[in-house]
Amino acid sequence: MSAKAGGKRGVLKSKPSARKPGFYAKVLDEAEQLDFELASGVEGIDDEITLLRVKIKSLLESEPENIRLIMQVTNALERLIRTRYNISKEQRKGLKEAIGNVIRDIAIPLGIGVGVSLKK
After folding, report:
1. What angle do CA 110, 112, 114 make, to 5 degrees?
2. Which listed site, 7, 36, 73, 120, has its alpha carbon 20 to 30 Å from 24?
3. CA distance linking residue 56 with residue 77, whole number of Å
4. What is the rounded CA–CA span in Å between residue 29 and residue 24?
5. What is the pLDDT along the chain (120 residues), one digit of tens a residue?
6. CA distance 1 to 9
7. Cα–Cα distances in angstroms (integers) from residue 45 to residues 51, 75, 78, in the given order
8. DSSP secondary structure string for all residues of the chain
């Protein structure tokens, strides 16, 4: 199947891993198009969080007076981190129970003091 299947440019339907920039092709040079293809295989946002941390450090070293840009990048990092670790109330409850079970069933019998009292 061609990239223009159905009159649309973009992802090849026969091979999901064979992504093409399509919409962005006009603004990306050849090296950026290769980077685009490599980046399309990345799942999750951990790499983006790491990259923003490195870029913030670099920005603070090279342009410490650029407060507006530093704040924008820092806010973007905050949103990514909040998204990455956002869990529902139900998930939080399950996590709390699981931690409690580990403490009650493993840590306490091993004599590891954790400074909390648990309901049995």
Report:
1. 140
2. 73
3. 9
4. 10
5. 444 444 444 444 444 445 555 787 788 888 988 888 888 888 888 888 899 999 999 888 898 888 889 889 888 988 888 888 886 778 777 877 887 777 777 767 766 554 444 444
6. 12
7. 10, 15, 12
8. --TTGGG--SS-SS-TT----GGGTTT--HHHHHHHHHHTT--SSHHHHHHHHHHHHHHHHH-TT-HHHHHHHHHHHHHHHHHHT---HHHHHHHHHHHHHHIIIIITTTT---S-----
Q: What are the backbone dihedrals phi and psi of residue 35, each rounded to the nearest 5 degrees, phi first?
A: -60, -40
Same domain, residue pair 57 and 77: yes
Give the chain's end-to-end CA distance (angstroms, integer): 61
- The domain in which residue 30 lies consists of 5-39
Q: Is residue 29 part of a domain?
A: yes
